[in-house]
Design brief:
By secondary structure, the protein is of the alpha/beta class. Helix content is 26%, strand content 28%. It is built from six helices and seven strands. The chain has a seven-stranded mixed β-sheet, sandwiched between helices. Bound molecules: S-adenosylmethionine.
Amino acid sequence: MNQSLTANHLDVGVGTGFYLEHCTFPATEVRLGLLDLNANSLEVTAKRASRYTPEVYQADILQPLPEQSQKFDSVSLNYLLHCLPGNLETKATLFDHLAPWLNPGATISGSTILQAGVPRSFVAKRLMHVYNQKQIFSNVSDNLDALQSQLSSRYTDVELEVIGCVALFRAHSNPH
Ligand SMILES: C[S@@+](CC[C@H](N)C(=O)[O-])C[C@H]1O[C@@H](n2cnc3c(N)ncnc32)[C@H](O)[C@@H]1O
């Protein structure tokens, strides 16, 4: 994850801020944006990352975002896509919503748990079934090909790595 961070970074779907606490930014002066739908997640993460004096944005990434005059050089979306409703085609609108917040050539990175196109153990299948039933996950139709296609249709240098049923992705927005 560290290789995908810049000193002008936005994290979307912050959760409890675990990764931000443990990651290393490439500079001591860091501009950090936190974006999440949930006010509690933002509050906990903003406290945890208080050394960066983060900018906090409460917003739904599935809707167009308000204007942003100071754009970011990198954005992370860790363990977010498999929680969002819909399929990867509809979820991927979030990349379009992020576009006006990103500088040309920005790094987009993230991770998500997939149902298809990745190896799934018996336990993973059972757990995913239960989590989807309980609406903790929403990834019944998420597959590796769809993720690759949504990223490739928007970005350059798309890299995907599969570890178990988790896909890690990295790409760059158009440089111009
Ligand atoms: C599983 S957590 C990810 C936590 C963190 N990124 C990590 O890797 O540990 C998912 C986060 O996405 C947020 N989220 C869910 N739907 C969202 C939406 N539509 N817009 C913005 N954030 C959303 C949740 O509030 C939660 O903080």
